[in-house]
Amino acid sequence: MAGIFDWARQQVSTRVPKADLDQRDPDYIREQLPGLWLLASLYFRADVRGLDRIPADGPVLLVGNHSGGNLPPDTFVFTLAFSSYFGVERPFYQLAHNLVVSMPGLGSLRKFGTVAANHDNATLALRSGAALLVYPGGDYEVFRPSWERHTVDFGGRKGYVKLARDAGVPIVPVASVGGQEAALFLDRGQWLARLLGVDKAARLKSVPILFAPPWGLTVSDMIPRLPLPTKIAIEVQDPIDADDIAASDDDVINDKVLASLQGGVDALAARRRFPVIG
């Protein structure tokens, strides 16, 4: 059995594109941005606020709560908003799970700056002077049940604090709501990931159970589906200065980030009258 897991792990790792920051293509983003922003505005009724709280230049670590499964509309909307506000020439990268960046047909994500989520890629992006968007909650948070949609939960992960400290960059929390209403998420399926062995073979800690069009009840989120037209609201929170990060331990900064995100999510949720509709 161990041999099977090792083989599967090798197959996944060999298919993950190496982080080549030059794959981000400002010209491609410039061409695609008007049409995609129109789509985001009409379909997801995108509402993004507080972009002026992000430092105008230089490296910065953007830390968000994550929602929407393997088709996260919050990342889609925020990436478009960031590129529109700061211009496509400002380098901006987003970390994503290995399976997402290696899936066939998603090569365009790399042109927008999406790279595999690992410490080396994150460090490379920040050292290049870029803004970097990370979701510490990963698949644990993105597959949480929909009735926990307004709960920020990183699952105890706080390696991003060390990343920011080592790079000497500020952390800017980015709160969002709406993404977990793009489908009805019923269970994270961590037990199922362990049962199938994909937690070891593919670093996949969740095999979620969800209900979404057009397939109805689905196990895993690897089959293309249609996200519901949920309203996505995002608000950037106040930055945490690099000096404060350097002077504090991981737990203190992690608590600050979680409190900032939860406060932002609560405020956005309070303005939301109905699920999906907004």
TrEMBL record:
<dbReference type="GO" id="GO:0016020">
    <property type="term" value="C:membrane"/>
</dbReference>
<feature type="domain" description="Phospholipid/glycerol acyltransferase">
    <location>
        <begin position="60"/>
        <end position="179"/>
    </location>
</feature>
<protein>
    <submittedName>
        <fullName>Glycerol acyltransferase</fullName>
    </submittedName>
</protein>
<keyword id="KW-0808">Transferase</keyword>
<dbReference type="GO" id="GO:0016746">
    <property type="term" value="F:acyltransferase activity"/>
</dbReference>
<keyword id="KW-0012">Acyltransferase</keyword>
<dbReference type="InterPro" id="IPR016676">
    <property type="entry name" value="P_lipid/glycerol_AcTrfase_prd"/>
</dbReference>
<dbReference type="InterPro" id="IPR002123">
    <property type="entry name" value="Plipid/glycerol_acylTrfase"/>
</dbReference>
<dbReference type="Pfam" id="PF01553">
    <property type="entry name" value="Acyltransferase"/>
</dbReference>
